[in-house]
Amino acid sequence: xxxxxxxxxxxxxxxxxxxxxxxxxDFNVAYLARQAGVDPEKLELAFPFREVHNYxxxxxxxxxxxxxxxxxxxxxxxxxxxYAIICNTYDYVPRAAFxx
Length: 100
Fold this sequence. Notes:
mainly alpha; 2 domains
């Protein structure tokens, strides 16, 4: 077992055979592999253990106007394609609710 909080290191350890398994969320594996100089196709999902969704948590005490502004910005970047560009950059496939 090798302990690190740097996921790019984990990809390198995996490819060198120094570890047999790397536990990570799947939404950024391809991006991290490329950052480590590894073809993402050389990695294989072995044991999917849960589904992960991204959220922004906002305190219940946050003014409604601030929450509305966050939502408006999200809606705008989905509508203009920015959200898709960000997702494509990190090989992230969003839930259907965010696909325009």
